[in-house]
Write a structure and sequence with these properties.
The protein is α+β, with helices and mostly antiparallel strands and about 280 residues long. The chain is built from seven helices and eleven strands. Strand 3 and strand 4 form a beta hairpin. The protein binds a DNA duplex (16 and 16 nucleotides) through helix 6.
Length: about 280
DNA sequence: CACGAGACCTGTTCGC
DNA sequence: TGCGAACAGGTCTCGT
């Protein structure tokens, strides 16, 4: 599903508007149509529509992989999970196959949540931290330093890849950007977190920021049939490039499974140096 | 605490 | 061509 750069791209598009697409800040919600019950995490579907109706969108942003809409009284949050997408369409546009929630806005606009795999979720809450309060720091936040990352890495012996996918450790990374960042930092995905040196922790933070910034600059990645307009997929170094040459050394990219996730890395640039705990 | 498996879902691609 | 298996950007829960 969309990771930080894809969600950031969507948030910016909705907040600022894009080609032929109006900005949504200032629009009033006139009604809502929930088409798949389980898409709504909370409150109940009976409470959702009357409570949402009439509120105005005051701001739109991103925290981790969550998209948030600050409304007159409440916060509306979306998590796109694997296949979710948010689309602006003219009012009364016919339903499309995987539409799950349609908001009717003023100015004859709809905001459509489309999600083939139905994993995505929506919340309407009065306190935003009830949903995003347990997230770890934003990787692009200047307040996050190599020193603080280093000390948090050393608080656990978990493997670095699953740790970076843990949203309570760091918010926003997913399978693509973790593989890309670890390759750039020349770290094996199974490296125990507490074995990283200070220098490696610094390189890891810089690598994470580089791949995220590059991803945002390319409007995110569009892969498989879930096309969102970005083209960062053309710049992957290792993700889904099994058997192709490493851009650094030419060694064929390897694929293993880590935490049930496909994991791509260069065995030459990212050697595993911790056999027998040594 | 840390890890693995299973669940939630649909669609595409791959191998026989 | 057909059909099942494997796989997919995520996260939660449960058992060990």
């Amino acid at each position: 599903m969309p990771e930080l750069p894809e969600v950031e791209t969507i948030a910016r598009m909705l907040r600022l508007g894009g080609r032929e697409q109006p900005a949504l800040v200032g629009r009033r919600i006139l009604g809502a149509n929930l088409l798949w019950e389980r898409t709504l995490a909370e409150p109940s579907s009976a409470e959702f529509v009357p409570r949402l109706t009439g509120q105005v969108i005051e701001d739109i942003g991103r925290r981790g992989k969550f998209l948030y809409f600050r409304l007159t009284r409440d916060w509306l949050l979306y998590h796109l999970r694997m296949s979710g997408d948010l689309l602006v369409r003219p009012a009364r546009t016919p339903r499309e196959t995987h539409d799950r929630l349609v908001l009717e806005l003023d100015d004859d606009i709809q905001l459509v949540f489309n999600d083939a795999r139905k994993f995505g979720r929506v919340w309407l809450v009065d306190e935003v931290d009830r949903v995003v309060g347990s997230l770890g720091p934003e990787p692009l936040d200047e307040g996050l330093t190599a020193e603080s990352l280093f000390s948090r890495l050393h608080a656990t012996h978990r493997q670095i890849k699953p740790l970076l996918l843990d949203q309570t450790f760091l918010a926003g990374l997913g399978n693509i950007y973790v593989d890309e960042a670890l390759n750039l930092a020349k770290l094996h995905p199974l490296t125990p977190a507490n074995r990283l040196t200070m220098e490696q922790a610094g390189r890891l933070l810089e690598s994470i920021r580089t791949v995220l910034r590059d991803g945002i600059a390319r409007n995110g990645a569009s892969i498989d049939w879930v096309y969102r307009g970005g083209d960062f997929q053309n710049y992957f170094r290792v993700y889904q490039r099994t058997g192709e040459p490493c851009p650094e050394c030419g060694t064929p990219i390897a694929r293993i499974v880590v935490g049930q996730r496909g994991t791509h890395f260069c065995p030459q640039c990212q050697p595993f140096l911790f056999l027998n705990g040594g």
